[in-house]
Amino acid sequence: MTTLDTRSNPLGADVQGGATPGWKRYIPGHHWRTADEEFDACTLGFWLFLATEVLLFAGLFVGYTIMRFKFPDAFTNGSSYLDWRWGTLNTVVLLLSSYTMAASIRAFQLDRQKQGKILLSATFIFGLVFLLIKFTFEYTPKLSGWFIAFDPALPHYASLIDGQALGGLFKHVEGYGGKAPGQFFSYAFSEDPWEPLWWSIYYCATGIHALHVIIGMTLIAWCFRRAVLYKAYGPSHYTMVENTGLYWHLVDLIWIFLFPLLYLIH
Amino acid sequence: MTTLDNSRAHELGGHGHHEGSYLTPKGGFWTTVWDWATTVDHKKIGVMYLGAVLFMFFLGGLAALAVRTELLDPVRTIQVAATDAAGKPLLDAEGKQVMKTEIVGQTLARWIPPKDEAKLGTVDYGNQLYNRAFTLHGAIMVFMVIIPSIPASLGNFFIPLMLGAKDVAFPRLNLLSWYIYVTGSIFAVCSILIGGVDTGWTFYTPYSTTTDAEHANVVLMVLGAFILGFSSILTGLNFIVTVHKLRAPGMGWFDMPLFIWAMYSTSIIQVLATPVIGITLLLLVFERMFRIGIFDPSLGGDPVLYQHFFWFYSHPVVYVMILPAFGVISEIIPVHSHKKIFGYRAIAFASLGVALVSFLVWGHHMFASSGELGATVFSALTFLVAIPTAVKVFNWIATLYKGSIALTTPMLYALMFLFLFSIGGLTGLPLGALATDLHLHDSYFVVAHFHYVMMGGTIITFVAGLHHWWPKMFGKMYNQFWANVGAWTVFVGFNLTFFTQFFLGTQGMPRRYASYVSEYQTLHIWSTVGSYVLLLGFLIHLFVFIHSLVAGRKAPANPWGGLTLEWEAESPPIEHNFAHEPIVTHGPYDFETTVPPHWNAKDYPLPHLPANAH
Questions:
Q1: Nearest to A55 among B160, B276, B292 (CB)
Q2: Which residues of chain A neighbour B241 with C-beta distances below 8 Å?
Q3: Domains and CATH numbers, chain B
Q4: Do residues A85 and A77 lie in contact, with contact meaning Cβ atoms separated by under 8 Å?
């Protein structure tokens, strides 16, 4: 009872500076009886938030299902432009990143600060790799026809190259681009009148997912910063890194569903 | 009552630090403004929500009055005798009267002349203004008033107090949701300022994807609703965790006040349904900006899919609007009749039951656009809603039976709620049944029905709750007599406005039309007069509240004799709510066996004074 009253800060606080690690100096918000209760509440709240994220994507999945039932041919046809190898690689990248994320939380729980930070940065880099693959090898050529010079698919279209930019770093393949959503769709060799709809679903789903990857990476970077600056996470206080992990796993999980739905339909 | 409180504080070994109430200014004017703008105190956030919601209520009310005023006169194109400059009848060469075409009944067009001269005096322009007025009214009242009204203002203020906690689980998130709410509202207001939206509050495709193609106003309004959704999600999430984790020692789930149960059920719906409208509105914005085609048949999409998505959220949200009202009524009725609530568990489970059923009935908004089998199934499911709701109404009436009822303003409003909500609920049955719905759908009957439920249910209860908790929130009593006068005026105005619309609807007056055949005019005039009476009633309340803040007598800590924990706090509560963490030793409605905290015989008599009370 009295312990409650001595704390007047409504927010949890870890006083910065000083030699003691931040996690040891952490004081829970004034309305919590113990730090454990605050941790439980934060985790419960975060799980609820994850439920809202699942429902957000549920809307997209319902849209996907209905449109695929209406136009199965447009979907198989559209999907055939996606390279399953990039999809698989990205799946592996995200799965690895989920492992490093989980391992990083464990490291902080055991107060292995250095290991935790390395794993956290590895997770961030995996996220970056995912986005780079997505944008360089998938979005850009499909939307504009511009390939990066070392794209393994490029030799296949060698005879159709009609331009280059940035000193040959990007090469343009004639007639390849234009696989844009909705009214921007201008791919000349489309084999199905409803193909624009497939691309709408594809860009909405993967685009919103990519946005989540970026948000997750921002959270990871923030955790990393706090860990470096004042050892914010340790055995008795690791709420933020734990919840960032939960978020990252959700991002991974949604991709696990998107991958077969988009890449593996025949 | 202060003596009682002090003596108790000494018994508990109070450590004598005297905190001011949460309303005590922290310094000069700008310091205080900054303190409020950055506060994480749930009470201040609740009060800020209250201010924001009341402001939006004022805007939405203005739009409603514009709609009603336009409907005083049907818009008609008539032939009238032309006159010359001197006012004499204009005759042609053969001496016959020259006739000219004139449009009558366009009140809004007279007030707001078009920027484009060519549109002056056209039917289209006046109709567009009318469409904008009712869209604004609907969108503002639903997204910015009713949804956040009770949960965000009263809920924020009283959930921690009723649980005996110092704050909600995530105070910073709470402040963030307020700012998100304000941002969303600013988007909506900007949309109004640059011309408004005429899609109806439901933003049905293809209206919403094709109208005003060159303007950004529809996108702004839809984004506003999208942003408001986040505020709603975060508030709901915060409340769920608060209820789970911050109950005072001794408070089990079934010792919680029923307001908490109602808010808990509401929050579940908010958290589970709002993301779906989020993605829907986002897709709508994409559809409008990039024509992605998901809702556009010419690109293969399906506009009915939009309706499904929209109502999958918006039907559960109907219960986000009404469940908190149920909670407020469950507090007011036992306190003001000093009697234990009848069927505590039945009411608590009915709240959860309503939340569950709410997810299964969205199709009843789409009887005309879905197949026969689907419509039949949804019709049958819809009638399930009647069961938990009726359980509640019967329980409230059973609570009143043999209670010692004090006709205070909150109680008066609670009784009005029972009356109005029953009408609203029962008129829902012919709309849920397919055969009668075919005649009634999209008519004024629907308009009247949902106003009886939404306004007669939620807004009336919001005002009831405001009167019930006003002394606690601001530490001032209000003038009961004038508040009762205001309540009666609202009651009369409300029934005049909306009961007439049941008749209009059954006679065939469709909703959302500025024009109508002249047979409907008498009823429309009554309805419009009613809306002015309603305005008068709310103005009376406004003056009563302002008078109370300026000159009201200081409120005792427990003016009505409530037993829930918020009445143990001071009026207004101190910054940390309670000087000591409360320990729950009695149920929230054990009026027969408990002396209310801070009890003073001058405030109210105790009907069932236990033998060992003194």
A1: B276
A2: 41, 44-45, 48
A3: 2-14+41-72+122-568 (1.20.210.10), 78-107 (no CATH)
A4: no
Residues in A closer than 8 angstroms to B299, CB to CB, are 182-183, 194, 196-197, 200
Comparing alpha-carbon positions, the chain B residue that sits nearest to A70 is B300
Question: B572 is written with which tokens?
Answer: 């207004």
In sequence order, the β-bridge partners of residue B79 are: B101
Query: Is A144 within the bounds of a domain?
Result: yes
Q: Please give the Cα distance from B88 to B435 (Å, whole number).
A: 56
> Mind listing the pLDDT tens digit for each residue in A13-35?
665 556 788 888 888 888 898 88
For range B483-494, the mean pLDDT = 97
Measured between alpha carbons, how far is B243 from B236 in angstroms, rounded to an integer? 11
- CB within 8 Å: A44 and B245: yes
In a domain? residue A20: no
> In this structure, is residue A94 part of a structural domain?
yes
Enter the tokens of residue B291: 């024509």
Q: Which residue type occupies A1?
A: M
The pTM is what? 0.91
Average pLDDT, chain B: 89
3-class state of residue B526 by DSSP: helix
Give mean pLDDT, residues B431-441.
91
Is A38 within a domain?
no
CATH of the domain at A63: 1.20.120.80
Pairs of CB atoms within 8 A across A/B: 135
The 10 Å CB-count burial string (b at 16+, else e) for A15-45 is: eeeeeebbbebbbbbbbbeebeebbbbbebb
